[in-house]
């Protein structure tokens, strides 16, 4: 009997040892479970030794689908509440927070942890070298579809003795490494700017960003939206834009002290900051603007080569040919006048944009092509240019216009420069989108400076000839051949008018746009009859042309700006779906890739991207992948949602293409001019695959 009793006692002792880890492992407490969370206290050392600071930890494990919260939980929740009052020989226990994750649910943004987390704790014994008995009452909020407060009572005894590493030492050290601290050489916050309730933070990653996120803490607390990210420099630089949600009236973030936590995967950095007002940077203010002026100059120069500027080359060519055999001074004056026309147009555009922006309206590059009346004006103007090249202005009424467009003075070259600028605005050349986006996100001074640089870039060919006027002497002398050339160039400009009518079709419908086209054909015919006729008919022809031009301007008002408008642009294939920003996050959460194409009928660069890249075999085949959602945002007509989407990404012109996916939830912005390689690389990266 005694023998059986001894065996039973041994068995009970073995079972007790198996269910009490604290007794079996020095420095590791027992797991305590409460609802969907279980917790324990751990120590990186087995004994207190002579340490004045004990490396401890609070370890949590949560059931799948449940989470708990960071020190600043966001729109809902609360941080862990810890009570150490039952402990012995403990004066302080400072808890640190590893970098949190963002949870976005039904428009609410919260920060915290799911699955598992270990909070590092630095405990200070009242008397170093003596035993420490830890007793913690922890109040935690754990949430899934519902939220449940849980209270756990935890304990851990650390005896006096050598502070040898425990089995939890590596886990505590790893948790300490995940706590965001100051500059670490991996991530760096470069600048913090604020305008009203919007915060803009620029940051750099030594090895490039993957999926950066930013958490903002202020006093008194404010909540912020998830940041919008714009990448540059091969993803080594990012601009993050956040907006305070539900701000009190009159809130101004500029000048407010805050703590920023920048997280990118396992990398994180924490930095105190004070938001600067109006775009002032902590680095020399001129450095950013000076660099952008160079970008704008190059963008304006490249704009000369873009398809939408090619029709103006006919006018440039006629101007150059006319200068053949002239004195250098006359050549210089003519080309300087054209450059002045370009600069005047850019300054006029800058003034309009500053005014519209100050009034709270949407601003953007080429946005005037969304207005039917402007399109009609361009159709009429191009038609008149063509008629002038064909020699149809040999009548008294339009003679002043003919003199300005093709006379011997400086008004003609000046008008040519302004016309070049007008037709350049539907294009977005490399570097131009970056420069315009920078300008329109700043104040009036930056807008004027950047647009001046763009104008100088577009005018550089004129300025080059003005600097070396003898170049014009290499051209053939004026002669009878110019009459034939004028006819050819007039037809080239009429092709531009046809393109403008195709854009107008999307605005006012096919019938109304076709009517404008017929009116322009009638205008040319009236000018031709007036030039050929005699007597009263010679005056009646130009008068009729004026009436037809007025009738063309009346057409949009008669049918309305959107009546009968064409549907959203679509390709032969039906892979494209309408743009819906709210659906992007859901698609990404479901593991799908989203390719967003912001385009417009009036954007020549957009059409080139479709023809040369998006509709070609390699990319078009990839777009047919069922796991890829291709969204097309048609900005042919004004659309506030698309304008806001562009502005959120620091863009104010199109084309704009961005790719979202599990590997890039904040999006990968593509260059203005697409290539097969750039698109496929972004799609692979968004899918979480290697480039």
TrEMBL record:
Keywords: Cytochrome c-type biogenesis, Membrane, Signal, Transmembrane, Transmembrane helix. Residues 291-502 form the Cytochrome C biogenesis protein transmembrane domain. The chain crosses the membrane at residues 289-313, 333-353, 373-393, 414-441, 447-469, 481-502, 508-529, 541-559. One of its GO terms (biological process) is cell redox homeostasis. Residues 55-154 form the Thiol:disulfide interchange protein DsbD N-terminal domain. This is Copper resistance protein. It holds the Pfam family DsbD_TM.
